[in-house]
Amino acid sequence: MGTAGAAGGPRRSRSSGPDGPAAGRGAGGIDHRRRSLARPAAAGVVGHGVRRCRGPGHRPGHDVTVRSTVERSGRAHRHTRRDRDHCECRDHRQRHRSRDPAGSGHPPGRIPGGRGDRRRRRTGPGRRRDRSESGRPVGRRGLGHRDRHRRCGVRGGGRERCHRQFRLGGSGWCADRPELRRRHRAGHPARGGTGDGRQHRRLAGAERAVHLDRAAPGDFRDRPGPVRAVGRAGRRRVTVGGTRIPSADPAPTDPDGDGARSASPGCADDDRPDPPDLRLVPIALTAWAGCLLVPPGGPPGPPAVIAAAGAAAVLLGLAVRRPRWRAGLLAALLGLLTGLLVAGLHSAQRAADPLRVAAADGGSASVAGTVDGYPRPVASRFTDPAANSAAGPTADPTAGPGSTSGAAGDGQRWAVTITAHAGRVSGVEWAELDSPVTVYGRGPTWATLLPGQAISVSGRLASPARADLPPTLTSRRDARPESAPPWWYQAAGAVRSTLRDHASALPPDPAGLVPGLVVGDTGGIDDRLDADARTAGLTHLLAVSGSHFALLCGLAVLLLGAAGPRVAALGGLAVVIALVVLVGPEPSVLRAAVMGLVTVVALLSGRRRTGVPALAGAVLLLLLVEPALARSAGFALSVLATGALVLVAPWWVAALHYRGVPRGWAQLLCIPVAAQLATLPVIVAISGSISLVGVLANVLVAPVVAPALLVGMAAALCGPWWPSAAQVLVAVAGWLLDWMATVAHTLARWPVAALPWPATPAGVTVLVMLLLGAVAALRRRRPRHLLLAALVGVLGVLLPVKVVGVGWPPPGWLLVACEVGQGDAMVLSTGDPGTAVVVDTGPDPVVMDACLDRLGVTTVAVLMLTHLHADHVAGLAGALDGRLVGPVLTGPGRDPAGTWHAIESAAHVTGSIVSTPPVGSTYRVGALTLTVLGPTGEFHGTESDPNNDSLVVRAEMDGRRMLFTGDIEPPAQQALLRSPEALRADVLKIPHHGSARTLDRFLRAVDADIAVIGVGLDNDYGHPSPKLLAALASAGTGTVLRTDLHGDAAVVVDPAGGGLGTRVRGPDGVITTVSVRE
């Protein structure tokens, strides 16, 4: 047998033999061994390529081929011998000689010392890299390579194998037959199909097969990512140079536990989405950052210049040190500089605007301009009785028109954005202007204005609350149209008005939702629904947003797809333009429209249609046109939500679908979750709370939104020409949207609907880090379990505290005196959740805002400022911030004048009406009735005229009376005692923080059971006076609530006996009961 082996029998060699190179391949059909550069010589000939063994017991069949391999170290080349230098021991040869059919004495498929007799390849992260993987060019070893295999104790030889490797089942057996290598269980499936080896006709000489779905190293000239696998069950196809090559290797399952698989058996296609094209993202983000660095009110200051210079230096440094990143970093630097330049030019132009300069001085203007958008009602549920003579002595703030049809008469106030082209500003004529201005007016003509219509207005200018907003102009006259709008806006106006008229026959909630969802007309949505939708995370469905454009444009492309891609793209473009005309140029609408246009252009040009380039292009284009959008919260919410739907949601859907969840259900769950998580930091920065029911609410209403939108759009289009069909369709849409209103109202009432979160930059930053950590942890199985356990633990602690421990505001509350220091701030319940009446705002806006947040107040139906002292009005900004505010009522005093102008300017920004109600005026808000009792006239020559001019109001709810007296002193008290029967009340807000200047006769006339004193701890005035406290005891007032001792103090209706009770919330948040009176 040795002779036969020496004579060139069928010994299986890695470099020769009848099977060629494939005979020596390892598992999977991949040649893991290095090709020999020398060919074997003829049997029995000693020469190049053959080495004769000189060990004891040598036989001719033991001669093996010399494998001389070139290894490069710099420029030096050396040849090393890789083969055996002696024969194996005699007992080993006798034991295994019979197993070699060629008589060589070695197991089949083995050459002792060759590359084929390596140990079984490890699969962990620390294993040696195979030749089939990228990382170094073929035929080279890294410098400093050392053989990791143990020698058998023989010096001066090549790599040796210990004989125990050739035991039954050892690693030296059957390298080309993996199914026989291990005795206990099967290893990986046998491979070896065509397409994996170097001999494939589609693989060049320098290419080699790769391991699918294995992350590639980040070295230069390596592939950028793992190779994907697609194909039918049991087959795998490798993409090489754009060509798919089949392989017989069945696809693995999900080894990493991250939900991303190659292809599952029996799956016809790959579930994983295509990788996004992120090339435009850096330039869009840096352009956004550049716009944010420029202040809106003037040129960039030193902080902005330093920040921009630092960012530019970092980008340039990275571009120099990282050649592969150079193009992307230079593009990002270009975006940063472009954003700085464009925003700086717009800021300089805005600072030089004549209307803005005149508004800073409180001047007047008479301008001619063009209407830019549809009129929107301002405080339409709150009617000012002083301005509406038709209301008579009693006016209902909740009885507004509820729509934008103009049927409200002169009492409805409207806001219209126009672009002024010429006019007279502060006595100076301007022939050429291009200044945006927001006009507030009252009258029937304002509701009929349409975009593109030329009008002339005049009034008083005021500066906006933020420098990036246009100045405001309050007109005391009706609008004066000077030309008709274009025909397309006339058609859009007819569609909007007919849809609004048909929806008015529906119940209140659907009547406002149908126009709002279809055409963006939100004038009919009442405050209660708006507040509940905000709590439930459904505000994006109350008006037109990007999802509406996506749905309608996608439907148009789908219906026109049979006519070809160009016709479908043109149809989608027509839908985008029509929606912009119908809805109006709102920030979210503009973003969605531009994104749709970018997608259509990509379709027409034949480029790949992906959402990320379209979104990045839309952001970049909108910021170049209007850099002020960089500071718009609505714009940020739109971009973040769309980015989450494009980048995150497809991968989560694929992961759930891989785990057996139907694709439709996976989309229904993943889309709202991705959108909610992406927009959560911005929402927290705005509202200061985290909605815990947002995902559930969106999942519940998702099945009805798309049908309601399509049916409502059909009703809008049919309205002007087929009214009967439009009425039927509107009824169907209203029936669907009534479910959305029910979900919003129900979930908003849950005690765990929202959790407070600090809206400070530090709080938002912590929230972002937590979200990023949670998303990263979800990609691995073990951290995923830990994250779930931590979430359950946190909710297990917070939810019981929210449900049981907090209890604020207490059930049945009528009045809450906020602890604001030395000042007054009273909040009255109206019976409607989220709606309240505020009497004075205290000295600190932050404290006032926090008190209203604790009470869950999102709508201030009526805001009363008794007089203009700072301890009563300085916290006005806290009451206005982020809330709907109705009319602002003040006393007749205007001293100090600066405070009065500040109140007017702040009210104009929110669209509120500032007025002094006459004595006897009555306001009804929900279950609460307000009656103005004083002052009967302005006081002159008293010790404190502003205090005596305080507004005195009596509030009544469920038969309980409360009297609010401001800081009135004896002259005003004596004037009120002329009608003592009107003063009778159950609760009295003590005048002037409990000073001694309160008449005993006044306290006895009121005869209150509970007295409330707004006073600061250890104040310098000695309030409350001991004399006053003794007078209260003499008058029979049994309970005295003091904010300095009790904190936030509430008067409640006791649920047991129906009497009045009190609850107080101390500084530590502990709620206690002071007393209960039957």
TrEMBL record:
Protein topology in the membrane: Multi-pass membrane protein
The Metallo-beta-lactamase domain, residue ranges: 822-1017
Protein name: DUF4131 domain-containing protein
Region (Disordered), start-end ranges: 1-157, 234-278, 379-410
InterPro entries: ComA-like_MBL, ComEC_N, Competence_DNA_uptake, Metallo-B-lactamas, RibonucZ/Hydroxyglut_hydro
TM region positions: 301-320, 327-346, 538-560, 567-583, 589-605, 612-629, 635-653, 665-686, 692-716, 728-747, 759-778, 785-808
Keywords in alphabetical order: Cell membrane, Membrane, Transmembrane, Transmembrane helix
Any one GO cellular component localisation term in the record: plasma membrane
UniProt feature, compositional bias: Basic and acidic residues: 60-74, 82-91
Location(s) in or outside the cell: Cell membrane
Sequence ranges of Basic residues compositional bias: 49-59, 117-129, 138-153
Feature: compositional bias, Low complexity: 239-251, 389-407
Main location: membrane
